[in-house]
């Protein structure tokens, strides 16, 4: 049987945590097996929306490997729901 999960809207969570209308940048860093460290950044655009920027770490600095404008951003995470003893 799978554990019950709840979905968290990460953009909403970050907005609340930053106590601003919108976060200006969201970064997700990840460590792929047998590859350089990578990250995905979402930077807000003055005209609305976001830039999605993919980067790879060279060992000294971050190198951009892709960039594109996006209109909307939705990010969610599924986490184990608290059990009655954790509430």
Key phrases:
mainly beta, four-stranded antiparallel beta sheet, two-stranded antiparallel sheet, 1 helix, 6 strands
Report on this model:
The protein has 87 residues and is mostly beta strands. The protein has one domain (5-80). The protein contains 1 helix and 6 strands. It has one helix at 10-18, and strands at 5-9, 25-30, 38-44, 50-57, 62-70, 76-80. It is flat.
Kindly state the percentage of residues in helix: 10-25%
Task: Determine the structural class based on helices, strands and strand pairing.
Answer: mainly beta
Whole-number total of structural domains: 1
Helix/strand order, N-terminal first = EHEEEEE
**Intertermini distance:** 21 Å
Give the gist of this structure.
With 87 residues, the protein is mostly beta strands.
List the helices and strands and how they pair.
Elements: E1 5-9, H1 10-18, E2 25-30, E3 38-44, E4 50-57, E5 62-70, E6 76-80
Antiparallel strand pairs: 1-6, 2-3, 3-4, 4-5
């Amino acid at each position: 049987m799978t554990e019950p999960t709840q979905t968290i809207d990460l953009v909403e969570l970050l907005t609340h945590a930053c106590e601003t209308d919108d976060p200006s940048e969201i970064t997700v860093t990840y460590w792929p097996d047998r590859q350089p460290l990578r990250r995905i950044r979402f930077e807000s655009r003055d005209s609305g929306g976001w830039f999605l920027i993919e980067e790879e770490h060279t060992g000294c600095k971050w190198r951009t490997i892709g960039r594109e404008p996006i209109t909307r951003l939705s990010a969610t995470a599924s986490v184990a729901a608290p059990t009655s003893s954790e509430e």
